[in-house]
Amino acid sequence: MKAGPSNSFPSPESVGLQRILPYKSLDLFRGFAALWVVLVHCCDRWLSDGNSAHLSEPLYAFAIRGQLGVVLFFVISGYCIVAAAYGALVSGKTTGRYAFERLRRIYPPYLAGLVLTVLSLVSISFASSHHLIAHVNHLQTFPHDVRYWAGNFFLAQYELDTPFVNIVFWSLCYEVAFYLLVGVFLQVARWIKARRGLLAGTVFFVNAVGVSTMAALAVLLIWARTVFPFDLWHQFAIGGMLFFVLELKPATMAGYSVKFRRMVLGLTAGVTVLTVTYAALLQVGFVDIGHPSSKVRSIGCLLFAGLLIWLRQYDEKVSSWRVVHPLIWVGAFSYSLYLIHPVVVPYADILSRRVGLNGSLYWIAVWVQLATAVVCGRLFYLGIERHFISKRQVQRLDAEHVA
After folding, report:
1. pLDDT at 398
2. Which helix (H) or strand (E) holds 99?
């Protein structure tokens, strides 16, 4: 979810076209979405401990809906991963290289976060069993099961039907599956490109994303269910279609034509209509105040995509505003923040309550937890994640003073 690739593109010299400019404001929304996701975990335990009456207060009312931040991440990831795959298609980069770059970006930081999560849970269990801390109910145990550890190691929990070491990592399973699906589309597009040219490969790639999305939505509409990861594929693919609409223009694409543009807009319209129909007719999955309905998530994707379409023309101006620089700064290490916050937020929560930040004062504890998560996320980024992002991305972040 959170390990989207660099929002930059290969040099256009290979095709004699203008470079697609980075969409800098995506880092702004990454930062906003990451903080929103962290906020829900800064207050959900307290609200579930008999304090639900506080839900009407603005801070908690906003924070508890932080799962919508995941929706924003899926749209952003869809844009960025489709951009990366298209860049690979244009530049001649192999599918293997595309896969390596995606795996390098997501797995080493994830595995480091997984190790820290396990160590934290083991430490809490040890301290509780030896009466070093107050008794903790429902301590997590680790099954002596190869499938359990294989699923959590490879982010294949859904495929292997095994529990999560940390349920917060559920969205990464979808991200990996989406990367794989886009990789398959890229490989077929490369075969077509080798035989019929770049334009034919691009046409296939655009159609593969659009048609697969409409097919997944049609299955949901007919049977009200589908298999992982196609239940959420439309959220991700809306971001992919957004890339095609915004960035494939005469100046940036070889063989561009009015017919091609009509095809892109037609596919986008089809995805939009089916998404609205799905949202209007069906409710799929579990719903409570902390888990927005499939209707809200689907419409949220479309509204966010519409915002990004409108904002693209003002990207340079908006991203230069000083007021948004803190969010852009957080967006640069949003993946680290996502990985590390489930480890550190519970400790900040417990310590805050111990010193009396409870009841009407718990709002202070929320900000303490958020600040703790941001600091630890930044340290995790500098110590781990930064070593696994591309040099071009590091250079871009350095130039924008957010690395």
Report:
1. 63
2. helix 95-129
Q: What is the mean pLDDT of residues 84-91?
A: 95
Q: What pTM does this model have? A: 0.92
pLDDT score recorded for residue 134: 59
3-state secondary structure of 281: helix
> How do residues 357-388 score in pLDDT, each as one tens digit?
988 999 999 999 999 999 999 999 999 999 99
pLDDT at 124 (0 to 100) = 77
Structure token pair of residue 52: 């639900």
Return all residues near 367 (Cβ < 8 A) that are at least 6 apart. none
Q: Residue 171: which residues within 8 A CB-CB, separation 6 or more?
A: 1, 2, 70, 73, 74
A 10 A CB-CB count for 203 gives 19
Integer Cα distance of 110 and 343 in angstroms: 13
CB 55 within 8 A of CB 47: yes
Q: Which of 273, 271, 263, 275 is nearest to 204 (CA)?
A: 263
Q: How far apart are CA 257 and CA 242, in angstroms?
A: 18
- Cα separation of 310 and 315, whole Å? 10
The reply to whether 5 falls in a domain is no
C-alpha R_g of the chain: 22
Number of domains, the chain: 1
On whether residue 4 sits in a domain, the answer given is no
Segment 392-401 mean pLDDT:
65
Number of helices (H) and strands (E), helices first, in the chain?
A: 16, 0
Euclidean distance between CA atoms 272 and 212, whole angstroms: 13
Q: Which domain holds residue 30?
A: 12-399
Look at residue 3 and tell me if it is in a domain.
Answer: no
HSE-CB at 163 with a 13 A cutoff on CA atoms is 8
Q: At residue 112, does pLDDT exceed 50?
A: yes
Residue 350 in any domain: the answer is yes
Q: What are phi and psi of 19, to 5 degrees?
A: -70, 140
Per-residue pLDDT at 146: 92
**Distance from the Cα of residue 294 to its chain's centroid:** 17
